[in-house]
Amino acid sequence: MIGGQHLLGMQQLDSEQINAILSTAQGFLQVSRRTIKKVPSLRGRTIITLFYEASTRTRMSFELAGKRLSADTVNISASGSSVSKGESLHDTVMTLNAMQPDAVIVRHPASGAAAFIANRIDARVLNAGDGQHEHPSQALLDMLTIRQRFGKLEGLKVAIVGDIAHSRVARSNLIGLAKMGAQVRVAAPKTLLPRGLVEAYQCTICPNVEAALEGADVVMALRLQRERMEGAFLPNLREYAIEYGISTAMLDRCNPDGILMHPGPVNRGVELSPEVVDGPRSVILDQVENGVAVRMALLYLILGGEPA
Amino acid sequence: MNLIIQNGRVLDPQSGRDEAADLLIEGDRIREVAPSGGMKLRDAEVIDVKGAWVTPGLIDLHVHLREPGQEYKEDVASGSRAATAGGFTSIVAMPNTDPVIDNGELVQFVIDRGKRAGLCRVLCCGAVSVGQKSERLAPFGEMKRAGAVAVTDDGRPVTNPVMMRRALEYSQDFDLPVLSHAEDAQLSGHGQMHEGVISTQLGLQGVPGVAEDVAVARDILLAEHTGGRLHIQHVSTARSVDLVRDAKARGVRVTAEATPHHFSLTHEAVMGYHTSTKVNPPLREGKDRAAVIAGLSDGTIDAIATDHAPHSSIEKDVAFADAMNGMIGLQTALPLALNLWRAGMPLLKVIALMTTGPARVLGLSTPAIREGALADLAIFDPAATWQLDDESNYSKSKNSPFWGRPLEGRVRATIVGGKVVYQYDRKPVWSVQH
After folding, report:
1. A96 with A165, same domain?
2. Rounded to an integer, what is the distance from CA A147 to the centroid of its chain?
3. Rounded to a whole number, what is the distance in Å from the CA of B286 to chain A's nearest CA?
């Protein structure tokens, strides 16, 4: 299994490991629904969240996961720490290492930063998003959410829509879903489709969003970063919403049981029309709940627990 | 004391000589070349180099010596040591130092430092524009009088096409080639590696090949328009090789160089986020690498140049996106070039790319092994394997993807102006003056 390993990306996991993580996470779901939301599995273990980018849900999700497993969790963010005084990543990591943490959860704007840290530290490193590279716990919670609805991943038609080029969520899902036998198709403005996408991942590129949604079991919308208006990727948000945004009418092209996912936070009225966010197909809040369970499973398994 | 170099396989691209021969060196000149055993013994120090190959001293027309300003990475003396350990007898310093070498005084400073180091011949380029800012022309005349052999804004492109046009015109008055770091900086943007399947997988922003191609095309057209002497540095894409080939066929005065890393590696070497593989232009695809090798073979590319670019752990022991571009290359160039011969390129052609080729680009006198020629020589064991490590490395920096990897072909001795300035199996003779 994954005991004792770092979790740097979906690239390192095989389908057996993914299934074991998802099953373990399914078991942990009930812990968060109890009155006493705590099990003693990681008592005495120290977990550090080291976040160089703003984040609410991912950081909090990991923190709650650690606390519900009885670990001691400490949060460090780039602002208000020695990082803001110009300390290098190398020196920050070596300093943390000297304090003997068991796991370090990292978010960093540079692709490869999680691997950089893993190469220098004794603790297990969990990648909570490195640049535009990977965000494995997001892909796993997405897969858990899909598995809950369909009982499987194999053979499902999954459409990933939006800014593929800059999305670590898209990359981790492209890798993970292919490993689980799902059929992934993507749709994006040409400016936001990275070169070599089909060579790099098992996926097909659709000519437009409508084509991607046709018969889809799962629609994953990606967040559009507002800074994409710079660099001439897109003219403006309004045009993006009209040409590439997903509305209720467009979702009718999906499989009748098809679900709508989004990693959050949503730009309402940009990548998703306001009503679909709260509509019957939306499983966005299930994703959030599953996120805690998946992160509990990851911490539990990596720090030595047995899979469910 | 005269010097006899005995029993080496002498390889001289200028004459095409390839035979076992003895060389007699008197002062700074080769006095006699005779088939092995055919030279009368006389009062001379004899070095028997049986099994080794003897070529004209290698010339590197693209090195960053970091002096003045960044002596913690390299300085003229340490760069000279690395050069002579790599078989180089002449190296050309780039002007992107701090301050930028954009006047005669600074050109003179670097040349003086080279003489003080007393190892290889240290030549120097001046900047194209003051401060390499692409705003005002640097004083080519003053820099030429101080000894500059070329002008370049290497390290950054000449972004302003008018500046490039003027440089290609004005440089003709001083017979200086313009060395172009051909890159459209806006197209490369914040790119960190070659744009392609690997950059997509690693989530790194890409530098498209077209960022180089557009600039190569622009500079070739400007050279054609002005009649100036253009040299394209570190060609890395298949399309750029084609552009240079076509321009040469039209009679444009253009030459080109390629680096050992671009003909040895592809963007796949970046997997794992190794910052030692971060270079500009970036490591490209297999088809680009093949085109560069084809260009070296057919004469489209005139010279192999290292783009030796030392960086310390401050610049390289960081996340990939934060790392600076460049790798060291003076000591690994010859073994990597010999891989071209191992893959089928004629041996004298490979040697020409590191001797007569770069000399022709700069308009230097032709290096040769013949009576009366300057005694600048490289002597190496083509089959000896070694690795670049803390013991063998003479640069102040270690940023090489070849670090710790087996290399085939090791320099045994380097001779500059008749003096042995490097010898593998003895203590280095760094104090020698010439």
Report:
1. no
2. 16
3. 14
Candidates B60, B75, B307, B376; catalytic one: B307
Paired tokens of A120: 């220098």
Among the partner-chain residues B189, B199, B273, the one whose CB lies closest to the CB of A115 is B273
Domain that holds residue A50: 10-134+288-302
**Partners of B18 in beta bridges:** B11
Contacts of B273 in chain A (CB under 8 A): 111-112, 115-116
pLDDT in tens, B182-210: 999 999 999 999 999 999 999 999 999 99
Q: Report DSSP state, residue B322.
A: G
pLDDT in tens, B17-44: 999 999 999 999 999 999 998 787 778 8
Rounded Cα distance between B241 and B397, Å, is 31
User: Do residues A68 and A28 share a domain?
Assistant: yes
B150: number of CA atoms within 13 Å, CB side?
A: 29
SS3 B163: helix
Token digits of residue B141: 């005349």
Kindly list the distances between the CA atom of residue A38 and the CA atoms of A66, A227, A280, in Å, as whole numbers in the listed order: 10, 40, 32
Known catalytic residue at B307: yes
> B310: which 2 tokens?
């030392």
Do A50 and A122 lie in one domain? The reply is: yes
Span B332-366, pLDDT tens digits:
999 999 999 999 999 999 999 999 999 999 999 99
- Give the closest-approach CA distance of B250 to chain A in angstroms: 34
Cβ of A227 under 8 Å from any chain B Cβ? no
Q: Does residue A1 lie in a domain region?
A: no
- The reply to whether A250 and A146 lie within a common domain is yes
Structural tokens at position A77: 């963010």
Task: Report if residue A47 sits inside a domain.
Answer: yes
Which of B273, B277, B322 is the best residue to mutate to test the A interface, defined by the most A CB atoms within 10 Å of its own CB?
Answer: B273
CATH number at residue A23: 3.40.50.1370
On whether both A160 and A230 belong to a single domain, the answer is yes
Give the predicted TM-score (pTM) of the model: 0.94
SS3 A32: helix
Among partner residues A112, A194, A231, which is closest to B319 by beta-carbon distance? A112
Mutation target among B186, B188, B194, B200 for the A interface, most CBs of A within 10 A? B200
| A33 falls within a domain | yes
Residues of A in contact with B197 (CB under 8 A): 195-196, 199-200
What is the domain count for chain A? 2
A83 and chain B in contact, CB less than 8 A: no
Name the residue among A110, A134, A194 with its Cβ closest to that of B319. Answer: A110
Does residue A275 sit within a domain?
yes
Q: Are A42 and A164 in contact (CB under 8 A)?
A: no
Q: Which residues lie closer than 8 Å to B246 by C-beta, 6 or more apart? A: none
Q: What is the ipTM of this complex?
A: 0.92
Instruction: Name the token pair of A37.
Output: 């939301």
Let me know whether A162 and A264 are in one domain.
yes
Q: Which domains does chain B have, with CATH numbers?
A: 2-54+370-433 (2.30.40.10), 57-362 (3.20.20.140)
| pLDDT grade for B284, boundaries at 50, 70 and 90 | very high
Whole-angstrom CA distances from A175 to A10, A134, A198, A202 are 6, 10, 12, 8
